[in-house]
């Protein structure tokens, strides 16, 4: 079946829904396709809040938020993106509130705010209340509110449609090919502009907070077109996932005063981050937890967790402001945070990298700044790069809103003035061939077994602590898994809700994301933010102040071509300069020069 | 432990009617029912159909009838539904919606009801420069109803909904409650009129099935009663 819209949004989480709303304001026709029902999107799993310098509790300024974002990102953040973000998110939070979002409130009736990791006043002096929250279900409320607004505006949705291919001809995007899960029918969506906002790929790891559906489909499809993925080596492990399960336990519990303790009950973060302690940025807290575990101070039957302690907090805070995690802890572990310590361990959580974009969400075709005409990306799928080498808590929800909106506005403006691109007659060919080859394969491999091996090996070899030998081993493992993938056979050949077929497709996408990540990480011989190498333990600004662009190597399959792009840094008179090497004697030239990161 | 999972299967392209299939599965008491269903799908019978996404009770995809009660498969642990070794659990699709394949039902009528109640904030005039002010007490009035994840556990356990498909059902009323009791909203009267129609709150016979089924512990029947009172006295 053929469809035609001016703007097509892929993904219906926070970024996609925001982009759809704003595209519709541009006097163009808009549709949104999603592999789920919109309200099932994983934005709904975000708990702790959305950071904005409203100053409702304590004095705050967007410059402080901008600085924290850059420092949190270990100076790989593009500072022009951080400036736009820290300014725009203030008014964007008010806009969400005007859409009816039920924020928690302060006694004076304003939006409630609490402390969160890495968010400080006066450029790092002490933690500040910046996270605007709706209990500990802020993402749920953002997702619901944005879906409600799309219902109000009459946005057209195609639910449970899986994108199989992007149509790009002569450097211009003409639409997408998608598979309708309910019927097995192939649909071609012809569009002037396409916005990709389909989320991350945490399922390549064994322990993850991510939904089963977060498999990096669109990143992989982009990569298969010979287009680059940016900064894939930077993947965030959230410090606090429920032990063994990886289910997210919000940083808000530390913002409300929760304390991490090792087996002897020691508040160990005092040793790693004397000033911010439990509220240091996530990369630092996750590594600290793993160091405690490695040195034998873990808890639990396998001594592979540490405890989060809320028992000193009043019951009404725990059951009121932290009701979600109280419920999760009681349900899955049978533990009551009011009186019990809750065992947690770091969990694969968020991709800082993704499809490279300009500040307006235009997809970059290379490291020199060429764009794919008519193609946009936003949210976790994209890399703008706001989060640099490590995202601060609450900045993901802000990213969705600010950059989802910018992508929507820009795409609508483009679509309004552009003609409909030509759609090749055989647009569906590649997608149909991919499905047919999977269905026809008669091998003996089981997709679930390959997936499990992928997840376990990525966790072991490209996880929180990395080194050259392990990652080289993973390169070989991935090549082997990809070879075996071609022998996966599908037993369900039906057309109706064939989720076996979809899961096999998703595995193929995950293998690509893992490949781009592993090669990008292996080549970066330094430690920065979430990318920590035991064999190159220091940050190296002389050689590595630059973004990785990973391209699939079609001449040598299983290999990746790597290129690099400078970081945008604010120089004199507020002007941004592209910098790929830095030494401290240049510090005077810059507003936020790369400094050693201490908390 | 080993358990038997008895699943009500149906593929309209192959089967004339629903039928039971039983799978023996090795599992831990702390496993989720979803883990067990995934195990069956991945290693025993890949044709099994069910929806799932977040796997921890926030996305609302995997509502199903487990041991005769509507629950989320990802929020139900084996130890809560099976006692002892060689126990059996039964898994069926939620009721009142057309079965498309195994546990997958047609969700459109459910979302049609949702869309019919104006499930969106309607401002009363131009918004202020910053946020609307709202007291902590007033914000709390929406705490339960805004917690809904639209999983359909409540609506598909409601006996009135089973026999009268035009009843909008408890989930849609919970959504209406969220806006009716929002002090910032400017369309209270329209909302109360919608609830007063013959598809609205008066169909509820306070069976409490919805409250028992809700995986988010929303006191749904109480919320419906609050909406009834608001309709009766024409004020929220």
How would you characterize this protein structure?
Chain A is of the alpha+beta class. Among the domains of chain A are: 240-349, Flavocytochrome C3, Chain A, domain 1; 429-547, Fumarate reductase/succinate dehydrogenase flavoprotein-like, C-terminal domain (Methane Monooxygenase Hydroxylase, Chain G, domain 1), CATH 1.20.58. In chain A, 34% of the residues lie in helices and 21% in strands. Chain A is built from 16 helices and 21 strands. In chain A, the strands form 5 sheets. In chain A, strands 1, 2, 6, 7, 8, 9, 16 and 17 form an 8-stranded mixed beta sheet that branches. In chain A, strand 20 (560-570) and strand 21 form a beta hairpin. Chain A is globular, with a radius of gyration of 23 Å. Chain A starts with a strand and ends in a 20-residue tail after the last strand. The model of chain A has no long low-confidence stretch (mean pLDDT 97). Chain B has 236 residues and is α+β, with helices and mostly antiparallel strands. Chain B has 2 domains: 2-104, Roll (Ubiquitin-like (UB roll)); 108-233, Alpha-helical ferredoxin (Fumarate Reductase Iron-sulfur Protein, Chain B, domain 2), CATH 1.10.1060. In chain B, 32% of the residues lie in helices and 14% in strands. Chain B contains 9 helices and 7 strands; from the N terminus they run ββαββαβββααααααα. In chain B, the strands form 2 sheets. A 5-stranded mixed beta sheet of chain B has the order 2-1-5-3-4, with helices on one face. In chain B, strands 6-7 form a two-stranded antiparallel ribbon. In chain B, helix 6 (169-180) packs antiparallel against helix 7. The mean pLDDT of chain B is 96. Classes of the chains: A alpha+beta (599), B alpha+beta (236). At the A-B interface, helix 3, helix 4 and helix 10 of A face helix 1 and helix 4 of B.
């Amino acid at each position: 079946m053929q469809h035609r819209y001016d703007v097509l949004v892929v993904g219906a989480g926070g970024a996609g829904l925001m982009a759809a709303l704003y595209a519709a304001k541009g006097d163009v026709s808009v549709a949104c396709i999603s592999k789920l029902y919109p309200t099932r999107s994983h934005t709904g799993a975000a708990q702790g809040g959305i950071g904005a310098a409203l100053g409702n509790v304590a004095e705050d300024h967007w410059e402080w938020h901008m600085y924290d974002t850059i420092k949190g990102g270990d100076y790989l953040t593009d500072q022009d993106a951080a400036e736009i973000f820290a300014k725009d998110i203030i008014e964007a939070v008010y806009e969400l509130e005007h859409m009816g979002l039920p924020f928690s409130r302060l006694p004076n009736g304003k939006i409630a705010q609490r402390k969160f990791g890495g968010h400080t006043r006066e450029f790092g002096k002490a933690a500040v209340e910046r996270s605007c929250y709706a209990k500990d279900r802020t993402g749920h409320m953002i997702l619901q509110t944005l879906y409600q607004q799309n219902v109000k505006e009459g946005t057209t949705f195609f639910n449970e449609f899986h994108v199989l291919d992007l149509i790009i001809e002569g450097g211009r995007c003409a639409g997408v090919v998608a598979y309708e899960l309910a019927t097995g029918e192939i649909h071609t969506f012809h569009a002037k502009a396409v916005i990709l906002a389909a989320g991350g790929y945490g399922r390549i790891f064994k322990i993850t907070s991510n939904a089963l559906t977060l498999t990096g489909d669109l990143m992989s499809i982009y990569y298969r077109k010979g287009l680059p993925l940016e900064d894939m080596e930077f993947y965030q492990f959230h410090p606090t996932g429920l032990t063994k399960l990886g289910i997210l336990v919000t940083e808000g519990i530390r913002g409300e005063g929760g304390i991490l303790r090792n087996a002897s009950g020691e508040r160990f973060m005092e040793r790693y981050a004397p000033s911010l302690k439990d509220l240091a940025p996530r990369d630092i807290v996750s590594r600290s937890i793993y160091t405690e575990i490695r040195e034998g101070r873990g808890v639990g039957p396998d001594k592979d967790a540490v405890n989060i302690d809320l028992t000193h907090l009043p019951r009404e805070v725990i059951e009121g402001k932290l009701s979600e995690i109280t419920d999760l802890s009681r349900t899955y572990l049978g533990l009551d945070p009011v009186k019990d310590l809750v065992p947690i361990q770091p969990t694969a959580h968020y991709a800082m990298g993704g499809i490279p974009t300009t500040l307006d969400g235009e997809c970059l075709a290379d490291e020199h700044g060429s764009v794919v005409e008519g193609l946009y990306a936003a949210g976790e799928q994209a890399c703008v790069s706001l989060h640099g080498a490590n995202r601060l808590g609450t900045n993901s929800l802000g990213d969705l809103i600010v950059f989802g909106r910018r992508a929507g506005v820009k795409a609508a403006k483009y679509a309004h003035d552009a003609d409909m691109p030509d759609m090749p007659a055989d647009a569906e060919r590649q997608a149909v061939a991919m499905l047919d080859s999977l269905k026809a394969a008669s091998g003996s491999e089981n997709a679930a077994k390959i997936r499990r091996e992928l997840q376990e090996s990525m966790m072991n070899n490209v996880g929180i602590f990395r080194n050259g030998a392990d990652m080289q081993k993973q390169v070989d493992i991935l090549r082997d898994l990809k070879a075996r993938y071609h022998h996966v056979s599908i037993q369900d050949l039906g057309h109706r809700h064939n989720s076996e077929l979809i899961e096999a497709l998703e595995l193929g996408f995950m293998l690509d994301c893992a490949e781009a990540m592993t090669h990008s990480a292996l080549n970066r011989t330094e430690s920065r933010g979430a990318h920590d190498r035991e064999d190159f333990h220091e940050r190296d600004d002389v050689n590595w102040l630059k973004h990785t662009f990973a391209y699939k190597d079609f001449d040598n399959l299983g290999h990746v071509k790597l290129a690099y792009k400078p970081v945008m840094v604010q120089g004199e008179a507020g002007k941004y300069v592209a910098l790929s090497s830095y030494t401290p004697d240049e510090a005077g030239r810059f507003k936020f020069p790369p400094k050693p990161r201490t908390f | 432990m080993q358990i038997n999972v008895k699943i009500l299967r149906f593929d309209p392209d192959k089967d004339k009617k629903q039928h039971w299939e039983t799978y023996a599965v090795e599992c831990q008491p702390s496993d989720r029912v979803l883990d067990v269903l995934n195990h069956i799908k991945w290693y025993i019978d890949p044709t099994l159909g069910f929806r799932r996404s977040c796997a921890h009770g926030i996305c609302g995809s995997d509502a199903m009838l487990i041991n005769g009660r509507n629950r989320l498969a990802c929020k139900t642990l084996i130890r809560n539904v099976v006692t002892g070794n060689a126990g059996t659990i039964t898994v069926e699709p939620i009721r009142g919606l057309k079965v498309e394949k195994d546990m997958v039902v047609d969700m459109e009528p459910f979302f049609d009801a949702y869309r019919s109640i104006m499930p969106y904030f309607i401002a009363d005039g131009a918004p202020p420069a910053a946020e609307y002010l709202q007291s902590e007490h007033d914000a709390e009035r929406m705490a339960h109803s805004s917690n809904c994840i639209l999983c359909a556990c409540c609506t598909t356990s409601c006996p009135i909904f089973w026999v009268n498909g035009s009843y909008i059902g408890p989930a849609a009323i919970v959504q209406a409650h969220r806006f009716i009791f929002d002090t910032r909203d400017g369309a209270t009267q329209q909302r109360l009129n919608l609830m007063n129609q013959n598809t609205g709150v008066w169909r509820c016979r306070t069976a409490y099935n919805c409250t028992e089924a809700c995986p988010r512990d929303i006191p749904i029947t109480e919320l419906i009663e609050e909406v009834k009172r608001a309709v009766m006295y024409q004020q929220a």
